[in-house]
Batch of 3 targets.
Target 1
Amino acid sequence: MKLTIAVLAGDGIGPEVTQEATAILSVVADLGGHQFSFVPGLIGGVAITATGSPLPAATLDLSLDADAVFLGAVGDQTFASLPPAKRPEAGLLQIRQALGGFANLRPSVAYAALSGNSPLRPEVTEGADILFVRELLGGLYFGAPRWWDKTSSANGGGEAINTMRYTRDEVARVARVAFELARKRRKKVTSVDKANVLEVSQLWRATVTEIARDYPEITLEHQLVDSMAMHLMNIPRNFDVVLTENLFGDILSDEAAVITGSLGMLPSATIGGTVNLYEPVHGSGPDIAGTGRANPLGAILTAAMVLRHSADLEAEALAIEAAVQRVLSEGYRTADLARVSSAGGASSALPVVSTREMGKLVQQALTEATDRRQSMHAV
Ligand code: IPM
Ligand code: MN
C-alpha cells in the first residue's frame, strides 16, 4: 500500500523521537512491500525562527495533501513572552483546526514490564487499559470571546476572558466516536464533565445520554471531573473508554501517564477530519533535547496508530506494539523509565539505552517477530 505522511518534527526532542517513528514505519514498509513516503515540514518554534509563523502556509499545504500527518512536539521557552496566538503552540492548535479532526484518541496502558515504574502500587495499575477520547476542537481552547488586552482600560488591563462553548452537534459527533470504539473494547464509556456547576457540562451530559440510546450494549457512566481525577488513580482498571471535553482531556490524559510509568509512553491519534493527525502526548522536553535521553516509545506507538487508523494495517500496528512490549520485558529502559518506584523493587540491573538505541531495539524485535511468522507460514 502507498501512504504519504507529512512529518512535522517540531521543537526540542520532537526531531529525535520522530526519527524513530519514521524508522519503524520504514521497517514495516520494507517487510510488507508497502510504499511509505515522508514529506518534512516546519511547525512550532523552529517554524517561527525560519519563517516568522508557527504554521507556515507551505506546512499546511503539504499536510492537507498528505494521507496522514505525524507531529513530534511543539514548544520553546524562547517565545514564552509572546501572546498565545503567536507562540509555537498556536501552530499546533491551527493545524488541528485546519485538519478538522475532533476526536483525539489517547490510549493509556499499564505495561506489565513497567509496573514498577509507576509511583502507584503494581496491584493498582495492573490490568489498566484506558482509551481517552478527548474532544479536540472546542471548549476553552477555541471558544470566543477570548482576549487579554493589556492596554485596555477595563480594570487597567487586569482582566482576561476565555470561553467554554460547545454545540450539541460537536458533543454528539465525538460521543459517537467514543461509543463506536467502546464496542470493540470492554463496552463501557465514562463521560467526564462538571455538570454540577457548568451549563456547558449539562449540555454535554444530556447529549451524551441521548447518543447512548443508539448503543444499548454499552454501559454509560457520568463522572464529575474532580472526582474522576481521584478515581483514575484509585482504581484505573475500572475505566475503559473515557470521553472528555478538550481541557479536561488534556489534564486527565497527563494524569493517566502516571499509570503507564512515564509521559514518554503515550501515543495519540486525532481522527474525524480530512486528514488524521498523530502526535505523542509528551511535550518538547527542552531540558533533555539533544542528549539522547528522550523516550521514543510514545512516538513509536503513535506510528502504530498511523497504521491502524490511516492505513488499515491492524496486524502491523499490533506487531509494533508487541515489539515495544518485548523490548521492555527484556529490561531495556530509556532514562525516564530507569527510575523505578520503591514498590517495584531494585532498579540497578536495568540497562539504560539512548533514544536511538531504543528505536533500534524495537526495529530489531519487529523484524525478528516478522521473520519468525514468515518461516512458520513457509512450513
Ligand atoms: C497536548 C498539549 C497541547 C494541548 C499544547 C501543546 C497546545 O498539551 O497535546 O496535550 O494542550 O492540547
Ligand atoms: Mn497536554
Target 2
Amino acid sequence: ARAREAQKQWRHSSWDERRRLLQHIMDHLLAHSDELCRVVVQDSGKTMENAIAGEIWPVCEKLRWTIRNGEKYLKTENVWTPLFPHKRAMIEYHPLGVIGVICPWNYPLQNIMGPTIPALMAGNGVVVKVSEAVAWSSARFLRIFQEALESIGYPSDLVQIVNGYGETGAALVRSGVELIVFTGSMPNGRRIIEGSAENITPVILELGGKDPMIICDDADLDQAVHAALGGVFINCGQNCLAAERLLVFDGIYDRFTEAVAGYVNNFRQGPPLGGEPVDVGAIVSPIQIDLVERLVNDAVSKGARVLAGGKRTLTDQGQYFQPTILADVTDDMDITREETFGPVMCIRRVSGEEEAIQIANGADYGLSSTVFTTDKDRARRLANQLEAGSTCINDFGFTYMAMGLPFGGVKGSGFGRLNGAEGLRACTNRKAVLEDRIALHKPIRIYPVTPHDYDIAKRTIQMIYRRGILGRIGNLFGLIGLQLRKATGR
Ligand code: NAD
C-alpha cells in the first residue's frame, strides 16, 4: 500500500527525473563499491573479485544503458496503419503500478537491482522480497534507493524491501501487484504461476539453467579453457548462466581436460575476507552444499572420473566444496539433468556437431549456451540449433553484459525477458491508442443492417487484398455501385 501511494506521484515524473534517480543510484554504487562488495561477501561467501565484477559492474552497465535508452524505448511510438490513413495509431507505455520482485540468493545486490531499474524507469513502484539466505545485506541496499529518492524529492516508500521465507513470497504473488518478476528455481516457478492465477497477475519467470558449453575441435584451446573456468567457477558455480555441461569434441578432449585440471588443482579456496586472494569462495546455504555433494557422489558412483576436488572441505569455516572436475559424465548420472549450482565442471566427450546439439538440447532447461570454434559458419550453424534464450560465441556470459539484448530463457528456464527494450517494456501497459489525424466526424452506419451490407464488406475485402490491380479495380467499381444502391435505398 505504501509503494502504491508513492507510485501515484512517481508515475507522473519526467524522463529527466527518472534518469536523475538512476544516476544517483549509480553514483552511490561507485562511491561505496568497496563497502558494498564487502557486505555482499559477508552475506554470501563469494570472493571480492566476484562481487565487484558480478554485482557492481552489471548493475552499473544496466544503469548506464537504461539512462541512455530508457526514454527512447518508453516514449509514445507511432505505428503506420494503412487501413485508417486518417487516424494516428500509437503505442503508449504506461506504468503498470507496483511490481513485485522475488529474488534468489546468488547475487544479493544484483538480483534486487536488475528488475528494479527498468521498473523504476518505466514509472512503477517496487516491492522486493529478498531471499532468506541473504536477508541481512538487504537493509544496506534499501538505503541506496531511499537516498536516491529523497535526493530528487520523491517518497522513499516507492521501493520496499521485505524479508521472509517462501510464504512471504507467496503472499506478495497474491497481493494484487500488477506484475511479478520471479527469479529462482523451477519448482518455485511453478508455485508462482499457481499463485498468480488467483488475481490473473502477469509473471516473468527467470528460472534455473543447465547451460551447455560446446567446445569444438578447432576451438582456440587457451581461450576455451579460460572461458570454461570462468563459466563454471565464477560465484562458486552459483550462477544461473553457469556452464553446467561442457560438451567437448573428441579431437580436443584430452588436451582440454588436462589443461583445466592443471588450473583447478591449484585453485586456492577459503574465506574471501581472510586477507589472501582466493579463487573460489563458499556456498551460500547448507541445503545447497548438500545438493552439490549428492550430485557429485552420484556421478562418481556411476563412473565419472574425478580430475580435481570432489569433496567438502574447510568444514570448520563454512560451507566449502572443493573446486571439482568430473570427466566422462554420462546420461545416467543425475548431474547431467539436475541443476548443480556449485563449483563442479562436468565434461562430456562428443563425436561432433550432431551429437553436441542433441545432448545440448536434451535438457529440460534452456537459459543460455556457449559455442567455441574458430570457424564462423560452424559457430552460427550450432548457435542456430541451440534451444536457449541466448548463445554466446567464443566468450562466456557476455550476452548478459550486452544490456541492449533481452535476457531470459525458454523451456524450464522460464519466460519473459528482463534486459533491453523488451525488459523495459515488460514493466508497462503497452496501450494501443487510435486518434484522429484528420477528424472526419462521419458516422460509420452499421445499424440498421441493410440487404447490401454483406456484399459491401465482401467487395471491400476483395478490393484491398486481391492480387493484381485489375481485380481490385473491378471490385472498386462494384463497391461504388453497392454504396449507391444502399444510399438510394434500392
Ligand atoms: P528458490 O526458488 O529457492 O527461491 C527464490 C525466492 O523465492 C526466494 O526469495 C524464496 O524465499 C522465494 N520463494 C520460495 N518459495 C516461494 C513460493 N512458494 N512463492 C513465492 N516465493 C517463494 O531459488 P534460490 O535457491 O534462492 O536460487 C537459486 C535458483 O535461482 C536456481 O535455480 C537458479 O538457476 C535460479 N536463478 C535464475 C536466474 C535467472 O536469471 N534465470 C538468476 C539467478 C538465479
Target 3
Amino acid sequence: MCGIVGYAGARPALEIVLDGLRRLEYRGYDSAGVAIVCDGELQTEKKAGKLANLEKLLAERAAATDGDSGLGIGDGPTGIGHTRWATHGGPTDRNAHPHQASDGDVAVIHNGIIENFAKLRGELEDAGVQFRSDTDTECAAHLLAAALTELRAAGEENSPQLLAKAMQQVCLRLEGAFTLLAVDAAIPGAVVGARRNSPLVVGRGQGENYLASDVAAFIEHTREAVELGQDQIVLITADTIEITDFDGQPASGTDFHVDWDASAAEKGGYDWFMLKEIEEQPQAIADTLLGRLTENGQIMLDEVRISDEDLRDVDKIFIVACGTAYHSGMVAKYAIEHWTRIPCEVELASEFRYRDPVLDRSTLVVVISQSGETMDTLMALRHAKEQKARVLAVCNTNGSTIPRESDAVLYTHGGPEIAVASTKAFLTQLVACYLIGLHLAQVRGIKYADEVAAVVAQLHQVPEKLRELLGRIEPVRELARELKSAPTVLFIGRHVGYPVALEGALKLKELAYMHAEGFAAGELKHGPIALIDEGTPVICIVPSAAGRSMLHDKVVSNIQEVRARGARTIVIAEEGDRAVEPYADHLIYVPRTPTLLAPLVTTVPLQVLAAEIAAARGHDVDQPRNLAKSVTVE
Ligand code: M6R
C-alpha cells in the first residue's frame, strides 16, 4: 500500500532513496517523505501529494539553504523514504511519513495498519507523549524512542544492534500488519526494518545494502536480494545484513536473484507505463509459457508441494482473488471445469472467509495475485489452510508472501507491472490458469499428452496474434476520443466474454472515473436494459461462431436488442465474423482464437480504450486517484 526504501552505504543516501521512491510510487502517492542521518543529525522532509511535491520542496530548500546534496538536506549516507497510500489520517503534510518521536532523533516509516494503535496511543498520551499526527505509525516512533531510552538507561551502548533490539521490543507490542523502517541519529550508518504480514525485501550491494517494499526500488544498484520471513527484524549497515526474529533469535532469509533489470521498470519512451505494459503483453505471455511443456508432454508448474495423488483426490476447486485477478479467475472457471470436470467456484477474497466456505483436504484453493501481497487474498489463503485445503498460488512476484505460504506456485513471468491498472498481469494470469487446468486434467488422466500439447500450441500462437492486433489498434484510440464524454458506458458478454466485460468496465472506472458496468449479455433484459438511452455506448464482446454457434448467435441477438433501444454498439468480434456487421456502429476485429482462450485477445482493445479515454480526459493513467497498486490492508 505504501512504498518504503532504506539505504545504508557510503554514497549520499538522499538521491538513492528518492530514486527508489520514484520506482515505488505506484504503491501509493498521497504523500512522500525522507529522513537522512547526516553528521549525527536527523534531517527530514515530507509533503502531501505526489513525490514531485516533495522533490519541489527539497529543491526550494536547496535554493534557500545551499544544502550539501543540492537537494535541500544534507548528504549523509544513511536514509529512509516513504510514499504513502493513506489509511490512518488524511493525506496531509502532518500525516506524511517519516514520523518522529519527541526527541527528534528517531524517524520511522510504515506500511500497513497497527490495529491496537488506539490503545497504544492512549497509553502513550497518559504517559505525557504529545502526538503530532493522526497516524497509527507515530505510536511506533514513540515506542521505539522509549525502548532506546530504556536500553541506554540499562547501560547498553549505542550500536546498530541496539537499534535492532529496540525494534524487537516495539514489534512485540504491535498488532496488525506492518513493515517498519527506522533510523536513529545517534546510531549513524544503520537502518532497521521489521515485517509482519507486509512486504519487505533486502538488496545486497557491495559496501551498501538496501531495504524496500519491492525490488524495483534497488534494481538499478543490485539484483541480489534476500526475502525475509514472517515476523523478522533486519538490520542493515554498509557491510552487514543481520536477521533475527521478534525475540532476538538469529534467523535467516532466502537469497534470490532478480531476473529482470532496471529498464523493465522504466517507461522506455511511452507516455505511460500502462501503454508500455499493454505492448509488453505478447512477450509476457511467451515468457509465462516458456518451458511449461516437458519433452514427454507434461505441464510444469514452479514449486509443487502437493503430490499427484492429492491432486487426483481434489473434488472441488475454489479460485479466490480480487479485482482484475478475480476476473481472470472467472475466465479460469470455464476452462478448468470444461477440461477437468471438477466443480469450480470463483470468490472475491474479501468475501471468501467471512461466509464460512465448505473446505477440506480434498479442496484445492487457487489464489491469484499479481503482487503476492494483497491482504484480502492472503487472509483467504490462510483461512483455506486452516481448513486443511491445499493452496496453489498464481503470482507475478517472487519472494512475496502469497506464494511463500502456498503449497504450490505457478509464477507468471510478466515482469514488473508499474501502472496501477493491471494489464499484462491479467493476461499472464489467464495463461497460468489455463496451464493449471491442463495440468489437473493430465494428472487425473482426463487429457492425453497430445490433447494438452494442442492447447499449449494454441497458447503459443497468442503472442503473435497480439502483436498483429496491437499493430492496428489506432482506430480504438480514435474511438476513445469520441467516447470521452459519454455519461455511461456498458459492456456485455457471455461465457468467457462476461468476465471480459467486467474487466473492461473495471478498467474504465478506475482510469477514466466514468460510470461503466459489465453485464452478462443474457441478463440485460432482466433489468439493466432500462439503462440504455439514445446513444449509450454498449461494448459487446462476441464469441467465435466456430464450434459454439448458438452462443455466438445469442450475443448477436443481444446486440440487436440494445441497438433497437438506441444504443451505440461497439462490437468486438473475431475476424471474418460478418454476422455482426449490420448491428455494429463500430467494429473491432480481433484475431481468431479458440473460444476458451479468446479473452487473451478480446481484453486488449478494452485496455487501450480505457487508457486512451483516461488520457483524453486529462487523468494520470498510471496513478489513478484514490488507488494504489497493491492493497496490503483488508
Ligand atoms: O496484486 P493483486 O493481483 O492481488 O491485486 C488485485 C487487485 O487489487 C488488482 O487486480 C486491481 O483490481 C487492479 N488495479 C485493477 O486494474
